Amino acid sequence: MKIDLHMHTTCSDGVYTPEELTSMAVQAGLDIIAISDHDTTAAYSGHDFAPGLTVIRAIEMSSECEDEDVHVLGYYIDPHSPELTDYCRQFRKKRLHRALEIVDKCIERGYNLDRKSVEDLLDKGGTVGRPHIARMLVDGGYCPDVKTAFDTLLYRGGPVYVPYKRWSIDECIGLIHAAGGVAVLAHPGLLKHTLSQVLAHPFDGIEVFHPNNRGRFDEFLALAHKHHWLISGGSDFHGVSGRFPETLGLFSVQEQQVADFLALGKKKGIL
């Protein structure tokens, strides 16, 4: 069984719609996936998934620890939970205001970007963030690719970066639990200075298998066993050129690697 528990659609910062993504997943031979868009569950409203595929409802929530981004994955959630719906609504507005501020900073520096393009993106549903602006910079010929846009302009503390207040890690975990889900620490390999502090929070699992964790799978497996946490894994697929994996299905996990995670889904009657 081929599984990918971390991917994004146009409802946040992915390139493909939920319909396109699920069709591609079937073509790639995936059996189970989770769409985990940033701070939104819009993929689970008004979209038709391709048949022949099990989709676990998920979200990736934004938090931080001492100026490092900390993302919390919520799995087996009720996407229509009132608390979660309210959270998504609030973050949708926050992300729009922040994105417009970033665009204004770009315009001040001579980059001819269109504010209306950001608003149009939001009209499609979901959220808007820095990756959308990075693509606008690429489309405008100002940067050769999204990575360069981030490395030169959009990085935390960069020339056009705009901070915004996020929920605490414990608040994110609590909201996921309130929505009936389990909270998993996303891509721990990206944490450079705060991993030990972040691990002290009451997660239910950890994303052991992720492209940015390569070379450290055993380390994160040991942490999962130490904390008695569920083990998750996924590609973090966005469909962005130059970002691994560019092809869906290139990075996946097998059933035995996430057996306890899947067993929980069966216990909940979801799988």
From TrEMBL:
A Pfam family reported for this protein in Swiss-Prot or TrEMBL: PHP
InterPro entries listed in its UniProt record: PHP_dom, PHP_domain, Pol/His_phosphatase_N, Pol/histidinol_Pase-like
Gene3D superfamilies: 1.10.150.650, Metal-dependent hydrolases (3.20.20.140)
Residue ranges of domain Polymerase/histidinol phosphatase N-terminal in the record: 3-65
Protein name in the entry: PHP domain-containing protein
Organism: Megasphaera hominis
